[in-house]
């Protein structure tokens, strides 16, 4: 579990094919990583399989390569990195699972003072999970949705986020990894399956009727 507050950026140092999967080597300023720990790479939760001072490696499955932007990274590409949340840490962003739901395409980037207003288009099936003032994770960055029109949504990226994440280089046409809000995912699912569920009050009403209380 993550917060969407990027700790630092890293650079892709190498890519090695391993059947349909790949192993990525990343240069990053971490000195105390542990074998097997989870780390968010551009919003995708991956497992550290090897590490040394200033460098670590992760295995990326064929599914992850196909469904995220990780399959397109080139050697030298910059990525957003966040280590997993520890119990007791401040939750400054929002709960992020690191399970990418789809790709969002940048439609427009407009300056707003020192910040930038960025409009994205999400896959149509993810539109129900987007709401104004709700949360999204874009390439692992926790952001607040300013407005939604259909499958398009806008966010405001503040100067600090522009400076310390890859979103500082965002441009129309680019795609980013999108994870919708964890709570929204389950609320929409619950509502969508409402017709399939038995009436939760039916048993209570039947008992009250038998007792002549209703």
Order of helices and strands: EEEEEHEEEEEEHEHH
The SS-based structural class is mainly beta
Q: Using the coordinates above, name the CATH class of the largest domain.
A: Mainly Beta
Q: State the CATH topology of the largest domain.
A: Elongation Factor Tu (Ef-tu), domain 3
List strands and helices in order, with pairings.
Blueprint: E1 8-18, E2 21-27, E3 38-41, E4 44-52, E5 55-60, H1 62-67, E6 78-83, E7 102-112, E8 115-121, E9 135-138, E10 141-149, E11 152-157, H2 159-164, E12 175-180, H3 182-192, H4 202-210
Antiparallel strand pairs: 1-2, 1-6, 2-5, 3-4, 3-6, 4-5, 7-8, 7-12, 8-11, 9-10, 9-12, 10-11
Describe the structure in your own words:
The protein is mainly β. It folds into 2 domains: 8-83, Elongation Factor Tu (Ef-tu), domain 3; 102-194, Elongation Factor Tu (Ef-tu), domain 3, CATH 2.40.30. 15% of the residues lie in helices and 40% in strands. It contains 4 helices and 12 strands. The protein has helices at 62-67, 159-164, 182-192, 202-210; strands at residues 8-18, 21-27, 38-41, 44-52, 55-60, 78-83, 102-112, 115-121, 135-138, 141-149, 152-157, 175-180. It has a 6-stranded antiparallel β-barrel with strand order 1-2-5-4-3-6. It has a 6-stranded antiparallel beta barrel with strand order 7-8-11-10-9-12. The radius of gyration is 21 Å and the shape is globular. The model has no long low-confidence stretch (mean pLDDT 91).
């Amino acid at each position: 579990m993550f917060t969407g507050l990027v700790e630092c950026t890293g650079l892709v140092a190498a890519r090695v094919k391993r059947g349909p999967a790949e192993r990525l080597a990343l240069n990053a300023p971490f000195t105390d990583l542990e074998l097997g720990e989870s780390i968010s790479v551009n919003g995708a939760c991956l497992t550290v399989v090897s590490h040394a001072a200033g460098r670590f490696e992760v295995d990326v499955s064929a599914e992850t390569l196909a469904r995220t932007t990780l399959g397109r990274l080139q050697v030298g590409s910059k990525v957003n990195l966040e280590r997993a949340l520890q119990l007791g840490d401040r939750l400054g962003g929002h709960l992020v699972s690191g399970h990418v739901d789809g790709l969002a395409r940048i439609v427009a980037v407009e300056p707003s003072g020192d910040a930038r207003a960025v409009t994205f288009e999400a896959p149509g099936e993810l539109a129900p999970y987007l709401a104004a003032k709700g949360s999204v994770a874009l390439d692992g960055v926790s952001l607040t949705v300013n407005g939604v029109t259909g499958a398009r949504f806008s966010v405001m990226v503040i100067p600090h986020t522009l400076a310390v994440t890859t979103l500082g280089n965002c441009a129309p046409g680019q795609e980013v990894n999108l994870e919708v809000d964890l709570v929204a995912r389950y609320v929409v699912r619950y509502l969508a399956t409402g017709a399939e569920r038995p009436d939760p009050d039916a048993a209570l009403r039947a008992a009250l009727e038998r007792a002549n209380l209703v």
